[in-house]
Amino acid sequence: MTDKEISEPKFLTRPGGPRLAYRRVDGRGPGVVFLGGFMSDMTGEKATALDGFCRRRGHAFLRFDYRGHGASGGRFEESVLSDWLADTLAALDRLTEGPQVLVGSSMGGWLMLLAALARPERVHALIGIAPAPDFVLRMEAGLTAGQQEALDEQGFFLRPSEYGDGPYTITKALIEDGKRHCLLDGPIPMVRPVRILHGMRDDAVSWRESLRLAERLESEDVRTVFVKDGDHRLSRPADLALLTTVLEGLLRGSGSGQ
User: What does the alpha-carbon distance between residue 166 and residue 125 come to, in Å, rounded to a whole number?
Assistant: First the structure.
């Protein structure tokens, strides 16, 4: 069943901010919220797989597009991480009830952590899929001389996409704003269960970053699963089956994640 056959997206309107497109499944708690990656949207394989899983199991589920992404309003090149965090908190506050399992993919893994720190009482557990906290630091360190020159002279550069969907506009504002939200330079005061899934053939975010994250998390209930032949997206049928198995364990409250 396609997204259109399920429903057209709805929109969350907010004073002073662009409207956010979302799809929601009503059901019991704990609910599940999917946070997508950089320049992705809520129609991808992981989001739709989680939607189907929650429908079958009767759990509430929410997916949405950040401003400048997918069907939401706003312009990507005018947005920074603080804006996407505000979108995440608005969606969590206004579109969900009770404890949630936050599932964050890539940049969504960073936003997942920031949202959990801002709303600890709303978190049942976390699942990071190739989570990318502090990615702006790695992005800045990897700039070519030409990209650095473009940032200094015009405030942005165009970064080729790894997935053939056009270049990304990377602004100096995005990098500088992201630096204000970095987490890996010290302990992360997170006490809820955390599961981390990461492909060892990920050429966008090294799987070693997930080891670093697991070390920084203060929770004692942290488990990492490495998929040796997995890439950054982890969207193959076997990857999606792993994701839903981990989610099912957390929803059961077993804490096993397996």
Answer: 34
- Joined together, the tokens standing for residue 225 give 């699963």
* Total Cβ atoms within 10 A of residue 185: 9
64 forms beta bridges with 22
In whole angstroms, what is the distance from residue 1 CA to residue 7 CA?
10
Euclidean distance between CA atoms 209 and 128, whole angstroms: 12
pLDDT < 50: residue spans in the chain: 1, 5, 254-258
| Angle between helices 45-57 and 237-252 in degrees, nearest 10 | 40
* Predicted TM-score of the model (pTM): 0.93
Half-sphere exposure at residue 225, Cβ-oriented, CA atoms within 13 angstroms:
19
- Cis, bond preceding 160 (omega within 30 deg of 0): no
Could you tell me the two tokens for 38? 């950089």
Query: Can you tell me the distance from the alpha carbon of 124 to that of 253, in angstroms, rounded to the nearest whole number?
Result: 9
> Which tokens in the block code for residue 46?
């992981």
* Burial group, residue 161, by CB count within 10 angstroms (0-12, 13-18, 19+): exposed
Q: Catalytic residues, which ones? A: 106, 202, 232
